[in-house]
Write a structure and sequence with these properties.
Glutaredoxin, five-stranded mixed sheet, 9 helices, 7 strands, about 10% strand, globular
Length: about 220
């Protein structure tokens, strides 16, 4: 990795710190969820499944796996930050999305996101849901009908999505993600792994540092 590339990623971290800083303060105060230390992992657990939504090239040098909850405020704060990291090295970094639906009602919104994938609208819907999270995630509770209105605003066919949400393959994906969440000891969101390694502690700079370290290898 060149010095220029490393400086670019570090600059992204400092630019994002103002947007994320308030949320990190709340995390430190226990008001939001944060990444835990990871317990011993079951041999059957996998950080990435073949059905997992991804951003970036399949053969990227660095893979970030993020366990997220669409109703999580810290996940919303980190969403544009992670996308900036990807944009800094688009040919070398990829993101894998895993679900950890801890908030009340989040499991239904995750089903909505998976139904959006059936229509090729996953990225548009997750971006809209995070951008307008305050409209549908109220008092740490996700409200599906309000989330559907947000999803409809980016072109999702809601009637089709209602039917697709209960597809057996979507249930299977959610069950597997829940099992992997338990196996990896993930109990707070967002939780990040970089090339299979958990962050040494939670924070935007820690994520940037670990990505930069893996790029240098």
């Amino acid at each position: 990795m060149t010095r220029k590339s490393l400086v670019l990623i570090v600059l992204i971290a400092f630019a994002a710190i103002f947007a994320v800083g308030g949320y990190l303060y709340k995390i430190n105060q226990g008001e939001l969820t944060a990444s835990p230390q990871i317990a011993q992992v079951s041999k059957d657990a996998q950080l990435e499944r073949d059905y997992s939504p991804t951003y970036g090239p399949e053969k990227a040098k660095v893979t970030i796996v993020e366990f997220l909850d669409p109703a999580c405020e810290a996940c919303r704060a980190f969403f544009p930050f992670v996308k900036q990291i990807l944009a800094a090295k688009p040919d070398e970094i990829r993101l894998v999305v895993r679900y950890a639906a801890f908030h009340k009602g989040s499991d239904a919104v995750v089903r909505l996101m998976e139904a959006a994938r059936q229509q090729g609208k996953f990225k548009e819907v997750i971006a809209a849901l995070f951008a307008d999270q305050a409209k549908w995630a109220i008092n740490h509770t996700a409200h599906l009908e309000e989330a559907m209105k947000v999803a409809a605003s980016v072109g999702l066919d809601i009637e089709k999505a209602r039917n697709d949400m209960m597809l057996p393959e979507i249930t299977t994906r959610l069950n597997q993600d829940a099992a992997d969440v338990k196996a990896f000891g993930v109990n707070k969101t967002p939780t990040f792994f970089v090339n299979g390694r958990p962050l040494p502690s939670f924070g935007s700079q820690q994520l940037v540092d670990l990505v930069a370290m893996e790029l240098q290898k």
